[in-house]
Design a protein that fits this description.
By secondary structure, the protein is an alpha+beta fold. It has 4 domains: about 10-55; about 75-170, 2-Layer Sandwich (Beta-Lactamase); about 175-245, Helix Hairpins (Orthogonal Bundle); about 255-410, 2-Layer Sandwich (Heat Shock Protein 90), CATH 3.30.565.10. About 50% of the residues lie in helices and about 20% in strands. The protein is built from 11 helices and 12 strands. The chain has a 5-stranded antiparallel beta sheet. The chain has a 5-stranded mixed beta sheet with strand order 7-9-10-12-11. A hairpin with a 3-residue loop joins strand 11 and strand 12.
Length: about 400
């Protein structure tokens, strides 16, 4: 029935009509036959007015609109939402839940698509009328994800046969960030503590047993200078990383002449190369146009890559640095330039490749430390390249050696 009109209104119209008709008939103004016909019409009309809304299309359309709105709202939520009946059967799922559990989950017991005991017991609680909130579950397939589970009971009859609503709130990124922050603080403390404890040890020795030993003092002071230098470098690298991270989403505004930058980097590192019996071969295409970029940051990128090639490449084998134009940057697309830094030597095992740009990740920790490394070089490279909207690609094989390629877009 149309809720905007009280049910008695058509009846009232009919009654007024019939009374009027009777009056007109009794004074003889209306013929008996016509009066009977009109009376039937009045009654039929009022009946139609009462009944019409019940069978009319208006409420059906409103219901359809309501459920379409509800489905659109549920689908727009980033978290999986599942509606369940009192037997724990899946009545409906939103898009995010469909992606997680598969379309086949609909109509089946939840346990067939979701075996996690915490989720199932939460849903059982909700069906029994108790709100369930907060257990954390981790799923490993298809990718590792962590969810907070919420299951809310719905009193019978509130919305059809729905008894419980299950919401899986995705907290993967938050947990990852917490983990990384914890690891990072632990790593920084560790990296600073080792040179510091070595410094403290030397100071104590110089104050005590080696007080008057001139030779030992000279030697110890050299080592101490090295350790202090490493601490200073670590702090510089951390600050530089923090600065680049803050600006990572903003593209640099300047323009950079990469062949000129490479010339400078090769000159600056040639003495270090010489010490390892290595030569730096720069093959530069001087016809290249400058690319959008920050000269100082790009210098830092190539300095670290060439420095690594000298440090980790075979002693005595040349390091090759090459720059040329490319028609298409892998993954990113668009034209640009590629800088290749290649060295001979033991190839990097495939399991290390994706982790090289993590902070403090070194294949051989002892060797890197002994060479004065902080393990932050490639992390800085990665962020600078990302800021330039470029790509860093690493290939390593026994035949080709290790090749770090930096792609930079030319506009
Ligand atoms: N050309 C290379 N060949 C073999 N291994 C490499 C090469 N470049 C980097 N690596 C490996 O990657 C690790 C990380 O390199 P990264 O530049 O981040 O740190 P680092 O060189 O140890 O320290 P820093 O750059 O701060 O001096 C290195 O410790 C090394 O194990
Ligand atoms: Mg390095």
């Amino acid at each position: 029935m149309n809720p905007n009109r009280p049910f008695w209104m058509p009846v009232a119209y009919a009654t007024v009509g019939l009374v009027l008709l009777t009056a007109l008939w009794s004074v003889g103004w209306v013929a008996t036959g016509a009066a009977v016909l009109l009376a039937v019409l009045f009654i039929a009309g009022s009946y139609w007015m009462i009944e019409r809304p019940k069978i009319g299309p208006i409420p059906a359309r409103e219901e359809a609109v309501d459920s379409a709105v509800a489905a659109a709202i549920l689908d727009s939520l980033p978290d999986p939402v599942v509606l369940l009946d009192k037997k724990r059967q899946v009545l409906a799922l939103n898009q995010a839940a469909m992606e997680l559990m598969g379309e086949a989950a609909k109509g089946r017991d939840l346990s067939q698509s979701f075996r996690h005991p915490a989720v199932l017991s939460g849903v059982n609680d909700a069906i029994a009328g108790h709100k369930f909130k907060g257990a954390e579950v981790s799923l490993t397939t298809p990718v590792r994800r962590t969810f907070e589970v919420y299951a809310t009971p719905l009193p019978p009859g509130t919305i059809g046969t729905i008894s419980a609503i299950l919401v899986l709130h995705d907290v993967t990124l938050a947990r990852q960030a917490e983990e990384m922050r914890g690891d990072f603080v632990a790593n920084v403390s560790h990296e600073l503590r080792s040179p510091l404890s070595s410094l403290v040890g030397f100071i104590e020795t110089l104050q005590g047993p080696a007080k008057n030993d001139v030779d030992a003092r000279e030697k110890f002071l050299d080592v101490m200078a090295g350790e202090a230098g490493r601490m200073a470098r670590l702090i510089d690298d951390l600050l530089s990383l923090a600065r680049i991270e803050v600006n990572e989403h903003v593209r640099p505004v300047g323009s950079a002449d990469v062949p000129v930058i490479l010339q400078g980097v090769v000159e600056a590192l040639s003495i270090k190369a010489k010490k390892r019996g290595t030569t730096l071969d720069l093959e530069s295409n001087t016809g290249l146009a400058p690319v959008p970029g920050d000269g100082d940051e790009l210098t830092e990128v190539f300095q670290n890559l060439v420095d690594n090639a000298i440090k980790y490449g075979t002693e005595g084998a040349p390091v090759s640095v090459r720059v040329d134009a490319v028609a298409r940057i892998p993954d990113v697309g668009g034209a640009g330039i590629r800088v290749r830094v290649a060295n001979r030597g033991e190839p990097i095992a495939p399991e290390h490749l994706p982790r090289l740009t993590e902070r403090f990740y070194r294949i051989d920790k002892g060797r890197s430390r002994q060479m004065g490394g902080t393990g932050l070089g490639l992390a800085i490279v990665k962020h600078i390249v990302a800021r330039h909207r470029g790509r860093l690609v690493v290939d390593s094989s026994a035949e080709e050696g290790t090749v770090f390629s930096v792609f930079l877009p030319d506009k």
